Write a sequence for this structure.
């Protein structure tokens, strides 16, 4: 398995590269977004355990804000509008999704699956953001919309099914 690499004019160790690729997880050759979402789960669990759902929302906002900055630099240096290696958007979306579920392994697995489905299918307005909003905002926004969809389904499951 061969890992991908950052643009030639951006060092792996540059803070923007580390943040945008979620410490290199975006360089996985297959499904880097899914890998980044999976890596976000245990960190999300620790945040949830120590700071509750509010901590997860704050962490998601921090990841979103850092993602705007980092993906902007990565986009500029790579010349690609939405580089596949930029996965901090998945981290922000995954943490936002986790904020609506209890600290429970079953719900964390469901949150992971539902967020990935929503991120892949991109229901409106996620698809609109992905296709119509350029630059860092476009990179980050579709995952926030996907998180809102996944979170809504999880709230329904938590309140009426499980």
């Amino acid at each position: 398995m061969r890992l991908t690499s950052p643009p030639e004019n951006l060092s792996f160790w540059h803070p923007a590269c580390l943040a945008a690729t979620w410490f290199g997880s975006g360089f996985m050759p297959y499904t880097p977004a899914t890998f980044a979402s999976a890596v976000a789960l245990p960190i999300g669990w620790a945040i949830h355990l120590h700071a509750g759902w509010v901590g997860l929302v704050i962490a998601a906002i921090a990841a979103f804000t850092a993602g705007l900055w980092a993906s902007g630099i990565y986009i500029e240096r790579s010349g690609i509008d939405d580089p596949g290696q930029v996965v901090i958007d998945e981290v922000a979306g995954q943490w936002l999704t986790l904020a609506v579920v209890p600290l429970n392994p079953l719900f964390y697995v469901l949150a992971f699956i539902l967020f990935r489905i929503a991120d892949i299918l991109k229901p409106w307005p996620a698809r609109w953001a992905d296709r119509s909003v350029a630059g860092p905002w476009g990179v980050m926004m579709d995952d926030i919309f996907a998180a809102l969809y996944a979170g809504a389904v999880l709230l329904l499951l938590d309140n009426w099914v499980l």
Observations:
- The chain has a mean pLDDT of 92.
- DSSP finds six helices and no strands in the chain.
- Helices lie at 15-20, 32-78, 88-98, 105-121, 126-132, 135-161.
- The first helix runs from residue 15 to 20.
